[in-house]
Automatic annotation (TrEMBL):
It comes from Dissophora globulifera. This is Thioesterase domain-containing protein. InterPro entries: ACOT13 (IPR039298), HotDog_dom_sf (IPR029069), Thioestr_dom (IPR006683). The keyword Hydrolase applies. Residues 53-126 form the Thioesterase domain. One of its GO terms (molecular function) is fatty acyl-CoA hydrolase activity.
Length: 152
């Protein structure tokens, strides 16, 4: 299966759970995927704004969480682990209607931990930079045992 199809299946499974990710990021679109990297886009909608009319920091943190997860999926995993650490640096703002470009990279998947980083930008302006570490030891076992919905 092509990498982009695999990552799309992982993301579709997230959306099917109808949790916070599905609510906050329902408009997320995958643009391109290669081994360990994922480029996605999201248009800032009214429910993404803080009380001052800017893009909410909680949304940007969620994007780092999901972006790192999709980068791990782009490295061939469908079970992607449990977050152990997320850090986000808020560099500049984004406003209603801006198209966020989300560039996620998985640097390493070890036996226990996976390390990712995510850059969120609007055009050539960096909005936020994040790092995301996930515990993947149990995910390795799940990946060996299970298939994604729709896989043969």
């Amino acid at each position: 299966m092509a990498t982009i199809q695999h990552v799309q299946r992982v993301w579709t499974n997230f959306l099917k759970k109808e949790g916070f990710d599905a609510y906050a990021l329902s408009g997320l679109k995958l643009v391109s995927v290669s081994k360990g990297t994922c480029l996605a886009e999201l248009e800032v909608a009214p429910h993404h704004l803080n009380r001052l009319g800017g893009c909410h920091g909680g949304l940007l943190s969620t994007i780092v969480d999901v972006g790192g997860t999709l980068a791990i999926a782009a490295d061939g995993m469908h079970a992607t682990g449990i977050s152990t650490d997320i850090s986000v640096s808020f560099v500049s703002g984004a406003k209603l209607g801006d198209k966020l470009s989300i560039n996620s990279r998985c640097h390493k998947i070890g036996g226990s931990l996976a390390y990712t980083d995510v850059e969120i930008a609007v055009e050539d302006k960096v909005v936020a930079l994040g790092r995301h570490t996930k515990f993947v030891r149990l995910a390795h076992k799940l990946n060996a045992q299970q298939k994604l919905d729709g896989e043969a």
